[in-house]
Amino acid sequence: MSAAAARSSGSSSARGSLVDGEFVLTDNDFRRIAAMLHGDAGISLPESKATLVYSRLAKRLRALGLSSFHDYCELVSGQDGVDERQRMLAALTTNVTRFFREPHHFEHLRDVTLPPLIDAARRGERVRLWSAACSTGPEPYSAAMTLLQAMPDVGRFDVKILATDIDPNVVAEARRGLYSNDAVEPVPADLRHRWMTRADGGWRMGDEVRALVTFNELNLIGQWPMRGRFDAIFCRNVVIYFEDDTQSRVWGRLTGMLRPGGYLYIGHSERVIGPAAAQLSLQGTTTYRLTGGAGQ
Predict the structure, then answer these.
(1) Is 62 tagged catalytic?
(2) Residues with Cβ < 8 Å from 250, sequence gap 6 or more?
């Protein structure tokens, strides 16, 4: 048994730990972590998530040689803990993703959104898509393959996909574009063999796909450096973790980044609330079109 475990074993409940285990996670520790996550990323963390917090951060305590969550909170709240605070944020951010997740969105993209955009691109106009919580990359790469399927010579035109995420680790993984055989199973065979190549026991996104996508770090509740508007935005299964006021602000900002007639694709458990709802027209399952004025 480790020294930390010896100190905590058999007494975690007596010492007020929210979770039985190697380290003590007190209510105060949890509140401090939740406050930092909310302040940094806008994510609301109820006490029912204490086990998740413990399981994801206990390995960080071991790696750092710390004996309690109190010590960990002291570290990440101080000037010397900036890098570790980013690791904490990454550990607590859910990154569930897969290729062509919610396939009706990509069918709509292919059949409704892209045809007029392809015509516009061939006329020399600028076309931009945004994956606003891209995780390890399957979402923007799925959009890129959909684009290439509809317009194989898209690389000759001013068409780009911006892909952003708050977690620098998943952004780096997305840039690499390497995926296991299991991960690419949802990719239709014809697209996989045309736009991907075998590599390192799995698959690598092909150069034509990668050339369409630019990956950057971005906090949805922070500053957005983009100035141009987008023809379509994917923001799926992330806003649901925000409180209502934050959700309303983010939906408004996203709507403000759409061009007139642009489309917003959201997660299956999400709904648009706040002023943005009056500017968006439901076009299908969790698919909206900007019909009013620009968002705030």
Answers:
(1) no
(2) 42, 220, 221, 235, 239, 242
Torsions phi, psi of 275, nearest 5?
A: -55, -30
The active-site residue, picked from 56, 126, 229, 253, is 56
Instruction: Please say if 71 is a catalytic residue.
Output: no
Please count the structural domains in the chain.
2
Q: What is the mean pLDDT of the chain?
A: 89
Higher pLDDT, 289 or 94: 289
pLDDT attached to residue 11: 39
**How large is the average pLDDT for residues 37-51?**
84
Catalytic residue among 87, 128, 165, 192: 165
What is the domain extent for residue 74?
A: 3-92
Whether the pLDDT of residue 190 is over 50: the answer is: yes
Q: How confident is residue 133, by pLDDT bands cut at 50, 70 and 90? A: very high
CATH number reported for the structural domain that contains residue 205 in this entry: 3.40.50.150
Report the amino acid identity of residue 65. G
Residue 98 lies in a domain: no
DSSP state of 21: S
Q: Where residue 25 sits, what CATH number does that domain have?
A: 1.10.155.10
